[in-house]
């Protein structure tokens, strides 16, 4: 039983990281219908920025964290401006390929600048455990879970309570109509990319104590976060986090209870089964075109 | 310019619209036939890879280019073909039998993947095919009694009707070329048949295709099966060319490379698959060439602009350091993909058509001929 709870918590913590990356996918998809395959790489780049600020320049953890988030928000806007904006309105496939190309580029450039070794960021949560009875919970995992809950709540409020959030939802429904209504669509899209990159950075920094930061971490985790977003139904913010947690828990349970090799495949098998039964994901809304 | 007057349906579906095509393709075939005798063995070996990648590209083109179903799982189909060949070869099954068996088995698997894919569109389909590819990769790594797991499998030299066909020899090149040409001709025939027209109808509008009486599910499964079968055939050749296969060769990376093949070539015509394959395979030797020669060339240019020998030497070593940096290839790949999507969305074949039209219409060519409409109102979610 104790093992089970232990696995559950570490699964949830891992799942929250997937959920945070998936949140980035969903944000961008919600606002622009662009599927950003480079989201995991944005997370990786954010982790490296944080490593540079904290590990190499010796800044305070929170200062470095904020600096990395700000830098990545700018980078997100830049990526949107250079790569995505010229092809908005073209078929989705082109945009997917463009973001795959962006991901390739980021991975190689990071590998060239920082090298391909593993890096570790010292955080206030790296050490120490919380003991509840005989249950031992590491602070680094709890910090991920707490941060996910906070970010999720903030984003939910932002999308549903603020004018800018409403503008983003309008843009996602119909870009042209939103433009006619006076919404500055280009700026909205740019801000969405900034937010997505910032969320990805948060995920990268929180992840740093659990798994090390290296140039391929974005690809590995991004490919897990994708099923998370799809499982939750692309386009649903709570869905992304629930999907992420599900994938994380399945992975950690499969690693513990099933023979070797199931750990990596189990999330995908579950995903295929869910897609078979409910093609629009768990929380997706299925809309049919009227002819 | 030449005007083609089509007076009946037979004119419309002709493989060679006019005699000029016969002439130019004849020259191309003749060149390809003498290639092993004039090119270095390294280039011939690269040409074999071009043939294999182009065959996969044609398969993927049927699915992605003509039926409009994206797939990032074609490496798995290639793997199934390759492993079928390696497995059956152990039991002394002759090449023609396991070649066809590889294609058939992969086709069946493709159809099985096609069924769940019926209800999925867009991004969901991409994810489903990625998941499928991951599962296949893991199965290959774990099913040790058949696949030898991560140790990989050796593939013996191909023997065709009792004659050994070494993987570096010209005969193997001719075999791959023959498979490619037959695949292309077969696909062209398929595309002018009712099946092919149904594929294109599904790509252009599923709703419209359905209301015209096209059985969308049936044709989607067919498209998956045909595409997978062709990829499986290429897989058999791939296994022989590499002579050793292991699960980590068939990763998502390879699937992305196949997508790059058709994207760079142009996703609307079979020419694109071949051009894209040439580009993708030949970029490697080209980059190696650049790495070796570029520093010298740039230092030479610097010297020509009046830099003294010390500065020129510095330039030389700096450029050499950049050119031999780890991972530069990945960065160049990334930049190439992004540039193609941004500036040449119709791919290399699109560029060729533009150049051709420019000369045909010469002073009247308009850039807007190839301009694509941007659509901001169509939501992919409402389909």
What is the number of helical segments of chain B per DSSP (H or I, 4+ residues)? 16
Strand order across the largest sheet of chain B: 1-4
Instruction: Give the oligomeric state.
Output: heterodimer
CA-atom Rg of chain B in angstroms: 23 Å
Strand content of chain A: under 5%
Domains of chain A (count)? 1
Main sheet: strand order of chain A: 1-2
What can you tell me about this protein's structure?
The complex is a heterodimer of chains A (291) and B (383). Chain A has a single domain (2-277), classed as ABC transporter involved in vitamin B12 uptake, BtuC (Orthogonal Bundle). Helices cover 73% and strands 3% of the residues of chain A. Chain A has eleven helices and two strands. Chain B has two domains: 39-265, no CATH class; 285-370, no CATH class. Helix content of chain B is 72%, strand content 3%. Chain B has helices at residues 9-12, 19-38, 41-66, 74-90, 95-117, 122-142, 144-147, 170-191, 194-204, 206-211, 216-242, 252-265, 270-304, 309-323, 328-343, 347-360, and strands spanning 153-154, 158-160, 163-165, 244-245. In chain B, helix 2 runs antiparallel to helix 8 and helix 4 runs parallel beside helix 6 (122-142). Chain B is globular and about 75 Å long. The two termini of chain B are 42 Å apart.
Give a quick summary of the entry.
The complex is a heterodimer of chains A (291) and B (383). Chain A is mostly helical and 291 residues long.
Q: How are the SSEs placed, and which strands pair?
A:
The complex is a heterodimer of chains A (291) and B (383).
Chain A: H1 2-32, H2 39-56, H3 61-84, H4 92-114, E1 129-132, E2 135-138, H5 139-161, H6 163-173, H7 175-180, H8 185-207, H9 217-231, H10 237-257, H11 262-277
Antiparallel strand pairs in A: 1-2
Helix pairs in contact in A: 1-5, 1-6, 1-8, 1-9, 1-10, 2-3, 2-4, 2-8, 2-9, 3-8, 5-6, 5-8, 6-8, 9-10, 9-11, 10-11
Chain B: H1 9-12, H2 19-38, H3 41-66, H4 74-90, H5 95-117, H6 122-142, H7 144-147, E1 153-154, E2 158-160, E3 163-165, H8 170-191, H9 194-204, H10 206-211, H11 216-242, E4 244-245, H12 252-265, H13 270-304, H14 309-323, H15 328-343, H16 347-360
Antiparallel strand pairs in B: 1-4, 2-3
């Amino acid at each position: 039983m104790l093992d089970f709870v232990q696995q559950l918590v570490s699964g949830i913590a891992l799942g929250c990281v997937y959920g945070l990356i998936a949140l980035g996918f969903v944000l961008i998809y919600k606002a622009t219908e662009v599927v950003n395959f480079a989201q995991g790489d944005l997370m990786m780049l954010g982790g490296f920025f944080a490593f540079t600020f904290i590990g190499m320049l010796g800044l305070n953890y929170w200062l470095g964290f904020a600096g990395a988030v700000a830098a990545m928000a700018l980078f997100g806007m830049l990526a949107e401006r250079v790569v995505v904006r010229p092809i908005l309105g073209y078929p989705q496939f082109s945009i997917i390929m463009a973001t795959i190309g962006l991901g390739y580029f980021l991975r190689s450039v990071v590998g060239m600048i920082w090298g391909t070794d593993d890096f570790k960021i010292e955080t206030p949560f790296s050490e120490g455990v919380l003991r509840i009875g005989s249950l031992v919970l590491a602070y680094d995992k709890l910090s991920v879970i707490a941060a996910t809950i906070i970010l999720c709540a903030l984003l939910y409020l932002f999308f549903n309570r603020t004018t800018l959030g409403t503008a983003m939802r309008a843009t996602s429904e119909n870009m042209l109509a939103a433009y006619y209504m006076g919404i500055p669509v280009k700026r909205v899209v740019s801000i969405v990319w900034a937010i997505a990159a910032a969320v990805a950075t948060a995920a990268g920094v929180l992840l740093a104590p659990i798994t090390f930061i290296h140039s391929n971490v974005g690809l590995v985790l991004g490919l897990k976060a994708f099923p998370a977003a799809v499982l939750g139904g692309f386009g649903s913010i709570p869905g992304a986090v629930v999907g992420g947690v599900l994938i994380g828990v399945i992975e950690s349970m499969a690693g513990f209870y099933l023979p070797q090799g199931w750990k990596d495949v189990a999330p995908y098998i579950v995903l295929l089964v869910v897609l078979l039964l409910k093609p629009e994901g768990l929380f997706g809304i299925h809309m049919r075109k009227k002819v | 310019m030449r005007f083609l007057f089509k007076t009946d349906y037979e004119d419309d579906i002709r493989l060679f619209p006019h005699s000029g095509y016969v002439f130019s393709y004849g020259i191309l075939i003749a060149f390809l036939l003498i290639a092993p005798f004039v090119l270095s063995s390294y280039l011939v070996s690269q040409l074999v890879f071009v043939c294999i990648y182009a065959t996969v590209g044609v398969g993927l083109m049927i699915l992605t280019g003509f039926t409009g179903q994206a797939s990032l799982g074609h490496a798995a189909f290639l793997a199934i073909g390759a492993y079928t060949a390696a497995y059956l070869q152990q039991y002394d099954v002759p090449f023609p039998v396991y070649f066809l068996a590889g294609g058939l088995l992969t086709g069946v698997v493709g159809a099985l993947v096609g069924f769940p894919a019926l209800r999925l569109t867009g991004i969901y389909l991409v994810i489903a095919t990625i998941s499928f590819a991951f599962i296949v990769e893991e199965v290959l790594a774990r099913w040790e009694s058949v696949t030898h797991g991560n140790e990989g499998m050796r593939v013996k030299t191909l023997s065709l009707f009792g004659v050994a066909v070494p993987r570096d020899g010209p005969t193997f090149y001719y075999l791959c070329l023959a498979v490619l040409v037959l695949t292309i001709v077969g696909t062209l025939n398929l595309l002018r048949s009712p099946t092919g027209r149904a594929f294109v109808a599904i790509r252009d509008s599923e709703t419209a295709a359905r209301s015209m009486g096209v059985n969308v599910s049936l044709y989607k499964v067919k498209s998956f099966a045909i595409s997978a079968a062709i990829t499986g055939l290429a897989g058999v050749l791939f296994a022989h060319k590499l002579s050793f296969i292991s699960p980590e060769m068939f990763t998502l990376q390879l699937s992305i490379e196949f997508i790059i093949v058709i994207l760079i070539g142009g996703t609307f015509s079979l020419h694109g698959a071949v051009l894209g394959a040439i580009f993708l395979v030949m970029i490697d030797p080209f980059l190696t060439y650049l790495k070796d020669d570029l520093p010298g060339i740039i230092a030479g240019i610097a010297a020509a602009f009046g830099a003294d020998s010390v500065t020129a030497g510095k330039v030389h070593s700096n450029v050499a350091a950049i050119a031999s940096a780890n991972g530069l290839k990945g960065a160049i790949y990334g930049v190439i993909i992004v540039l193609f999507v941004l500036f040449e969305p119709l791919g290399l074949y699109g560029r060729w058509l533009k150049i051709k039209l420019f000369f045909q219409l010469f002073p009247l060519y308009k850039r807007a001929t190839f301009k694509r409409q941007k659509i901001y109102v169509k939501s992919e979610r409402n389909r």
